[in-house]
Amino acid sequence: MGKDSETVVIVGGAIVGSFTAYFLRKQGFQGQVKVVELDPSYQRSSTALSAAAIRTQFGCDFNTRICLFAADMFRNIKSWFGPQADIGFKEHGYLILRDSADVKQMVEAQNAAGADVSILYPDDLVKRFPWISTEGVTCGTFGNRHEGWFDAWTLMREVQSAAKILGVEYLQGEVASVTTRNGNATGVSLSDGSQLQADWVVVAAGALSARVTRSLGISLPVVPRKRTVFNIQTPQSNSAFPMLFDTSGTWIRPEGEGFICGIAPDPENDPDAYDDFEPDYDLFEEKIWMNLAKRVPAFESLRMTAAWAGHYEINTFDHNGIVGPHDEIKNLMFATGFSGHGVMQAPAVGRGIAELICTGDYQSLDLKPLGYDRITKNIPVIENSVY
Ligand SMILES: Cc1cc2nc3c(=O)[nH]c(=O)nc-3n(C[C@H](O)[C@H](O)[C@H](O)COP(=O)(O)OP(=O)(O)OC[C@H]3O[C@@H](n4cnc5c(N)ncnc54)[C@H](O)[C@@H]3O)c2cc1C
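^ thats the input. predicted complex w/ flavin-adenine dinucleotide below
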């Protein structure tokens, strides 16, 4: 699989790029695998700045399947990466509160895809989560298994180490463009003027992915949008607390002794962010605090202790990942646009891209619904469950 002389260049070395490199080797790719990373500190990568949670509750059933593979990997992390591997996977459900009762069909589809999601009505909610106010809530959906949170940084480091042991080469550099000849990608040009030849180029550059292929006239609908995460302390115990999504859009989950929480800004206050990593404290003062105190009365006396901001790589076309080959340049692959789900999707996506390169098709899970061609054909595959 993959001749000795063949080379894959992966643009971006965080979670998606590294899982792709790792699975190429695991699947027996014999040639060279080169990962080009702009900033090997990964400080501004979305992976390092994420909330590192995983769910199976999606509107598109393929997203559920993609995440089930990751949940299984996280549960059995030592069998993948060795006895030292500990990503602190806490398998606790997402509790998504709803203000419409119209969820039965969606939950059935999730469970048919392999998830284990229950619908809880207000009486069940109060029995199970006595601290909750059910005002304005018609029901909640709760993942009994396969959901939770983990340490994304440690996961990324484990995958990178494993990939390096398997012979993947990590290079520091900024890919300025993808080079082509006769409709094929031939490699990449770096901003220092150097070139790398490649038989396949994989774009896994997160929120900056669109820049990589811009000079080819490809307008990838992926933009960086700022999301702020706040650490809080409260008298409310966080043991047995789920990853809670409120009807207001506020989310909160345990972290250490306290909690982390956030909310998406209103669309009119959500510009492309690029170099802006300044936490948006107004979101906390004007929205989150009030929303949390309404939902969990014990949160009235909460205290914000820290905050950070990172970038979602938002696919403005339909909020789903863009995975697979360009429709004309067949050896140019995309693995980006996950719109806030990329850590939980990275294992299945990396495996899928590796399968495409090694065998010409998906083998374990069909990721074609995420293909690039839906963009040129203008057929969005909308994911409604975006937080
Ligand atoms: C606040 C926040 C909370 C989130 N919460 C979750 C969550 O709970 N669960 C979840 O699954 N996901 C979550 N996400 C989304 C998740 O972090 C991303 O989807 C995921 O990290 C994407 O991984 P990636 O490897 O594609 O991108 P990144 O981690 O951003 O990595 C891309 C890499 O490419 C490099 N790069 C960029 N351009 C170039 C270039 N031209 N040349 C070379 N290298 C380049 C960058 O330096 C970077 O290291 C969250 C994101 C944020 C910001």
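Residues 18 and 160 are 6 Å apart (CA to CA).
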